[in-house]
Design goal:
- The chain has one domain.
- The chain is built from one helix and five strands.
- The protein has one helix spanning about 15-65, and strands at about 100, 120-130, 130-135, 145-150, 155-165.
- Strands 1, 2, 3, 4 and 5 form a five-stranded antiparallel sheet that branches.
Length: about 170
């Protein structure tokens, strides 16, 4: 066998080695795609949160600017007669916002905010115990908890809570 190689002794991949190599490469591709997918999902959720927080902050600031109690002396909790829910311009105390919600979010005058289809803002107001702010109170003890929640497509994205006390001056220094 002058100059002719014996094919049986030539180095080459066997079928088993090729199958194992393909399996290892496949596992690496799946791991890489899972990592990319998780990163994209994280970016999406961060983007939604960046959009939801200003919506919640703006509404919470609006609520906190209101008086603790109705300036007309009404003891009713929630909206009083003459205060519609289509527009918040007539809301004059914190608890007028109780159970208020709008989808898509609205400005105070009731006009819809643009490019927010599928988003919802809601407000819950309730009395709390001044010595334990996590405990709901059955009557007014001088502190109200305000919680603003923002959802996108039914999924909560942001929630902010603040407290308004009867001794905190409202509009006009009351």
């Amino acid at each position: 066998m002058n100059g002719v190689r014996d094919l049986r002794s030539a180095p080459a991949f066997t079928l088993v080695e090729a199958t194992v190599s393909i399996f290892i490469v496949g596992v690496m591709v799946v791991a890489a795609l899972s990592t990319v997918g998780a990163t994209r999902l994280g970016e999406y959720k961060l983007g939604e949160r960046c959009r939801a927080l200003p919506l919640a902050q703006g509404l919470l600031a609006e609520v906190l600017q209101q008086s603790y109690e109705d300036p007309n002396g009404s003891a009713a909790f929630g909206t009083e007669s003459g205060e519609g829910t289509a527009s918040r311009t007539d809301f004059d105390d914190v608890d007028d916002y109780h159970n208020w919600s709008a989808s898509p979010p609205q400005n105070q005058d009731g006009t819809e905010m643009s490019d927010l289809s599928g988003w919802l803002r809601s407000v819950q107001v309730g009395w709390v115990n001044p010595t334990n702010l996590s405990q709901t109170a059955g009557s007014d003890q001088g502190v109200k908890r305000i919680t603003v929640t923002v959802k996108h497509d039914g999924v909560p994205v942001a929630s902010l809570t603040a407290f308004r006390t009867s001794v905190w001056p409202g509009p006009g220094g009351e």
